[in-house]
Amino acid sequence: MGAPARTISPRGVVTARAPAGRKLAWLPPAVVAGGLIPLCVLGMRAGAGALGPDPVAEALNQLGLLALVLLVASLAATPLKLVSGWTFPLRIRKALGLLAFFYACAHFLTYAIVDQGLDARAIVEDITERPFILAGFVALLVLVPLAATSTARMLKRLGAARWKRLHRLAYAAAVLGIVHFFLRVKKDTTEPMIYAALLALLFAVRIASAALRRRTAPR
After folding, report:
1. Which residue, 97, 118, 59, 60, is CA-closest to 173?
2. DSSP 112
3. Which residues, other chains included, contact 6 with Cβ-Cβ below 8 Å and sequence gap of 6+?
4. pLDDT by residue, tens only, the chain of 219 residues
5. pTM, to two decimals
6. Are strands 14-17 and 5-8 parallel, antiparallel or unpaired?
7. What residues contact 45, with CB distance under 8 A and at least 6 apart?
8. How far is CA 161 from CA 23, 86, 154, 167, 215, in A?
9. Cα-atom radius of gyration of the chain, to the nearest Å?
10. Close Cβ partners of 174 (under 8 Å, ≥ 6 residues apart)
């Protein structure tokens, strides 16, 4: 880390200024703390018996939806920066992605432990015979290497180019998550279609930005 930048005030007093990398250092921890609030609320509702007639299904629905929302939010960071010029979304992208992985794991573990009682045969049958569960399970598997390589050390080890190619799989995980949601609701597909349209918009922004860079790049 370099020494703090120094500025001179109008009165001639030299003051230290925090490095640019330390600006908004509180933001990722705040996002993580805020992202865990829904889990606390869900736990309190479960403890109070306020999850409705089918509490397991309600817990599964809430955890799965949180995972999808946070994953799409993490994917929105770069397009939002490209469109607005804001840099703060990039600072919270990792926190959002890890929260999405956390809720996806919680979603699956609730299914495997609470709903299926760790019955391996029943779980395997569900994954192989029910397409919506297969889509969700594959989405979780896709997220595992992304979470495992989310550290600066892994970025350095893989190299920026390989790391970026790997983490583009987040879009595949989001698509699978939306397919999982779509197949799960069956009748009223309005909500999963909204997420599908949002994801398509984010992807379109990325494609348009890449095309613009190629067009304006010097030959």
Report:
1. 97
2. I
3. 14, 15, 16, 17
4. 444 444 444 444 444 444 444 577 889 999 999 999 999 999 999 999 999 999 999 999 999 999 999 999 999 999 999 998 888 999 999 999 999 999 999 999 999 999 999 999 999 999 999 999 999 999 999 999 999 999 999 999 999 999 999 999 999 999 999 999 999 987 889 999 999 999 999 999 999 988 888 887 665
5. 0.86
6. antiparallel
7. 51
8. 26, 23, 12, 10, 21
9. 21
10. 68, 71, 72, 75, 139, 199
133: Cβ contacts below 8 Å, ≥ 6 apart: 126, 127, 180
What are φ and ψ of residue 22, in 5° steps? Answer: -90, -5
Residue where the block lists tokens 């190299």: 159
What is the residue whose two structure tokens read 């019955």? Answer: 119
- 3 state DSSP class of 92: helix
- Amino acid identity of residue 105, one-letter, is C
